[in-house]
Amino acid sequence: MASDKENVTTFTTEEIAQLGSLARINITEQEGQSLTSDLNAIVHYVAQLQEVHTENIEPLGNVHGAKNVFRKDTASYYANVDAILEQTPARSGRLIQVPLVVDHDEN
Amino acid sequence: MTDLLFAPLTDVQRALESKTVSSEELTKDFLKQIHAFDRLNAYISTFEEEALQQARTADKKRASGDTSPLLGVPLALKDNIVMTEGETTCASNFLKDYQSPFDATCVEKLRNAGAVLLGKTNLDEFSMGSSTENSFFGATSNPWDETRVPGGTSGGSAAAVAAGLATAALGTDTGGSIRQPGAFCSVTGLKPTYGRISRYGIVAFASSLDQVGTMTHTAEDAALLCSLLFGKDPLDATSMDKEVPDFDLSTTKDLKGKTIGIPQEYFTDALSGEIAQVVTAATKEFEKLGATLREISLPNTELAVPTYYIIAPAEASSNLARFDGLRYGTRAKDVYGLKELYAQSRTEGFGKEVKRRILTGAYVLSSGYYDAYYLQALKTRRLIQQDFHTAFEHECDFILSPTTPTTAFQKGENVDDPIAMYLNDIYTVTANLAGLPALNLPCGFDSQGLPIGLQLTGKAWDEELLLKAGMLYQRQTDWHTRRPSLTEGS
Lengths: 107, 490
Prior knowledge:
The complex is a heterodimer. By secondary structure, chain A is mainly alpha-helical. Chain A has a domain at 1-51: Orthogonal Bundle (Histone, subunit A), CATH 1.10.20. Chain A contains 3 helices and 2 strands; from the N terminus they run αααββ. Chain A is flat. Chain B has a single domain, classed as Amidase signature (AS) enzymes (Alpha-Beta Complex). In chain B, 37% of the residues lie in helices and 13% in strands. Chain B contains 15 helices and 11 strands. Chain B is globular, with a radius of gyration of 21 Å. Chain B starts with 8 loop residues before the first helix and ends in a 14-residue tail after the last helix. At the A-B interface, helix 1 and helix 2 of A face helix 9, helix 10, helix 11, helix 12 and helix 13 of B.
């Protein structure tokens, strides 16, 4: 991606469309221009953090210092399966229906 | 109509206990008021039959001796909190028909305490915004000036409490979403310490920042709700097992011996002069209560908004990846292939701000940019947390600041300028980044009659001191009792 003097990306509409494709969002032509200028404004704004000296600073992901722990992988009975199935946009009996997923054109 | 529409929860509780009013009468009055002020668009949905049924059940239970703390009290919930009645939409086209098969833990706790649940309030889509304008169901109006925004993202909850459309409401706060609308609508709003209230059943936006909280008429009401909502939930691994504080004021008569930090970095040119004046005047009330004021420094304050607007979108882009149109929510029609089904469903389902955040998040997490943006933001987040640790360790017991840099702005004013919108969060995002409790208290009005809020930020797990300070402040001021002059049918 193109960079300006301060080493901060300036997106083109094509690059925003590509980012959208990675995030599974189609960027319409109508939205492309304004999303591109919005993203440029946002990324240039947040890029000010790059000037902060953070050598030897530990990243902070969870404020209470929690670490990931694994629970036991045990199955439990869920009584309300029908309520979950009712939310599916398309189904066949107790199966969720999806369109063709194996497609030689997919990348 | 009863005169309880604008009454604090504690008064409603007493009226119900003494049988001055029945829950059914009260619930009918609230439903009438909700209809009369439909134009505010505070609610996305109401559950009239269910609420009246809950009210009648509460009245019967009371007659047979039940004394549950919220028995028959009409409350509202932000529409990103799932419950089995109606839809949980998150104000999104994507979830407009979504019906949850289960209740959030906080809903279950309210039900167990006997509450009547009136309906679901409006918000910015997926809690992304600062004005409740980014809603698929249209913007909410500020009851103090209907041409203005109520703040966001819990703007529907704030407007509902301010306009007498619920005795109290739950909101969620990721970067100020309870406190900023609280300030804009003159509502007492508490964001508790991260981990205090279970997030199970809250539609996730930014999981390391999101927290459920209360929007009430008084700090005493907030304390009452917190005593019911706080606690470890096995269904939320980030909720913590901490003792629930005793909010009883009988042992606390004043703030003698307490030092309140006033952060100089919060009183800059970005702050409206009128707000600076009103908040400074409010500090005198805390001095009268015996507290000592001390100027402190939170040197990394200016890093907070850029840090937040990297971390929150990053977590959002990951959390919102689940919305694929397969198992629930909107599914695009006549689409060929899986990738295109995902993309088209999300394109049709999400509004513009949600797309901005997902794209920003995807970028800052992407290979090659991760270290420069996301990892760097996690480090500056540490610096911001350290500022607070240092202040609380050496200088003060809690911090007092303005809640917002301006009073409620006009609808449409900031919708096309994301950075201007983001800067509304300048004083509130720090508490989320550091995981601290923070409380908005109404403290005055500007020359246009718009509410102003002050914010108390406390040590982790010290909601007790914040709420006691709030209760003492509200005993000697009456800002929180002022009501907007609303006229029906205009």
